[in-house]
């Protein structure tokens, strides 16, 4: 948990240096593709993501998810932590389609010993007001190059930019 807090703190500090950063709070679900990887399906999780723009089309996004530990023993959490690149693909009037790709780790009551896994996804950022956007996405989760599951994310982004 200390590692996750450190990553999140680093992301928050870096976000203050950006010009049009976003903070996204979301709900996230993971389902395996028929294999019992990562201990099977994970419970619904809360996700926090910070967007750090590096150009008009690209941004870095550190994220962390936290869901209740499936063992039912105590108040422990499990989920993903990682870093992804968000790339705008198509711009619309009040929205844009984007692709994401990056790497993540998995944590649980057993610690952080799992492998680094890949994330590749598509999403939509739909502006609903000057500072808020609806952000649904889907990610294919891979181990090496083999797809092992999917992550579904639905969130609300707050644009802290000017």
Shape, principal axes of CA atoms? globular
Question: In angstroms, what is the radius of gyration?
Answer: 16 Å
Written as H for each helix and E for each strand, in order along the chain, the element string is: HEEEEEEEE
Report the span from N to C terminus: 33 Å
- What CATH first level would be assigned? Mainly Beta
Which band does the percent of strand residues land in? over 45%
CATH topology label: Porin
Instruction: Give the neighbour order of strands across the main sheet.
Output: 1-2-3-4-5-6-7-8
Total count of helical runs of at least 4 residues = 1
How many beta-strand runs? 8
Q: Give me the secondary-structure category.
A: mainly beta
What does this structure look like?
It is built from one helix and eight strands, in the order H-E-E-E-E-E-E-E-E. The protein is mainly beta. It has a single domain, classed as Porin. It has an eight-stranded antiparallel barrel with strand order 1-2-3-4-5-6-7-8. The longest helix is centred in the N-terminal third of the chain and has 14 residues. The protein is globular.
SSE layout:
Elements: H1 2-15, E1 22-32, E2 42-53, E3 58-68, E4 77-91, E5 95-107, E6 117-127, E7 132-143, E8 146-159
Antiparallel strand pairs: 1-2, 1-8, 2-3, 3-4, 4-5, 5-6, 6-7, 7-8
């Amino acid at each position: 948990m200390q590692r996750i807090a450190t990553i999140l703190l680093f992301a928050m500090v870096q976000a203050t240096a950006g010009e049009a950063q976003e903070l996204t709070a979301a709900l996230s679900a993971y389902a395996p593709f028929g294999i019992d990887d990562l201990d099977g399906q994970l419970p619904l999780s809360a996700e926090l993501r910070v967007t750090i723009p590096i150009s008009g089309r690209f941004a870095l996004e550190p994220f962390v998810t936290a869901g209740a530990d499936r063992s039912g023993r105590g108040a422990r959490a499990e989920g993903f932590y990682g870093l992804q690149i968000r790339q705008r693909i198509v711009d619309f009037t009040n929205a844009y389609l984007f692709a994401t790709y990056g790497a993540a780790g998995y944590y649980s009551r057993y610690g952080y010993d799992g492998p680094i896994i890949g994330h590749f996804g598509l999403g939509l950022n739909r502006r609903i007001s000057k500072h808020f956007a609806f952000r649904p996405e889907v990610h294919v989760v891979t181990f090496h190059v083999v797809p092992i599951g999917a992550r579904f994310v639905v969130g609300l982004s707050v644009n802290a930019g000017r």
